[in-house]
């Protein structure tokens, strides 16, 4: 048993020294590594302390520099405050000295004012004494003496002043009259235009005399249809290649002329075609009216206005006043008013517009109640015309006061245009007025559709609504209208009242 243990003991004995030596070596190595780490840590610590000292020194240096700058700024501010304080002290001293001077001056002025009051009182007393003494010596009071003085001065200068005033008035009046005559003569001479207006008739040129028979038609049915539809008289005589349209209403004459021109161009002339062409002519007459208004604006150089206002102006082309075409009269007035305004230094544009639109109310005076001046004012205001133009046109018949120089110029241009020899004819105006009154009387009856005064007023052709007036009613209306014409009008000869009741039934086969 022991013998078996010996080898084991020998082996342990051999291993034990090696284990001891290995342990010792490990302990030695561990102690060396620890000493090296401690040395490294100590080096790092020393380096950190050195850097901290450097940073601390740098911070102290910057703090010292900042402190020096603050002290420097504080010193500068202290010096500035000292200077400001010195200035304020100086100003305060100056103000105190001025205040003292002002108090002294005030006291001096107060004393002088008191002295002046005393002197004024003494002067007033002396003046009153002198006035009383003068009144005593002259036996007159103040008012009486003044009146006597003025009376004597007036008597001495009265004759001389009167002569001077008369002489000045005569000289000025002669000079003004001479200047006015020069201006008016120059205006009339510069606008020496002739006016030839169709008063009651219009001539239609025919390509050949053969067309006269076609226009008359079988048993006169074509010419009767034209006269019935347009309300004019067609006069066909021996005049070669021409016929005459007679009627007091220029619009009707123009419609008849347009319809005849269309029928002649078409070549087919019969009642149905005549009705068609008359309706087309009525539609085209509005374009003619608009063209006439735009042409008037272009001719006078006024420029564009509201298109509806130009339409009203164009309607004046189919209106006459005492035989004078109203549109031509207005154009002539615009030229004359512009020349006069230029000579007098007035507004040329306002004067020309006021003259051109002065009779615009006549375009609808038969449709709207009131004078043509009042109607014209309302039309111009409605379409935004310049208020200066309205003031210029409203006084041409002295219904309104002359508000501006342009209003007097328009009135003068109206007088010049109407007073030219041959421009107006009173007899024609009376004749046209009689025809208008005939139609007005007939249109005042209920059931009347339209009426035409033809044959120079010797016949009144009245068309009634067939559904409102029967045959007996038409007879009664003819008698009533004739009776009213006899009561209200004066006329030579007799007037034929022709009441026409026409019924048509129209149907289409499809």
TrEMBL record:
TM regions (residue ranges): 6-25
Instruction: Name where it's found.
Output: Cell membrane
User: What's the chief localization of this chain?
Assistant: membrane
A biological process from GO: mRNA catabolic process
Residues annotated as domain HD: 326-419
Show the InterPro entries listed in the entry: HD/PDEase_dom, HD_domain, HDIG_dom, KH_dom, KH_dom-like_a/b, KH_dom_type_1, KH_dom_type_1_sf, Ribonuclease_Y
List GO molecular-function terms, semicolon-separated. hydrolase activity; RNA binding; RNA endonuclease activity
The record's section on Pfam families has: HD, KH_1, RNase_Y_N
Q: Which residues form a coiled coil?
A: 53-178
Please indicate which superkingdom the organism of origin belongs to: Bacteria
Q: Which CDD domains match?
A: HDc, KH-I_RNaseY
Family statement: Belongs to the RNase Y family.
Q: What protein is this chain from?
A: Ribonuclease Y
Q: What is the lineage of its organism?
A: Bacteria, Candidatus Yanofskyibacteriota
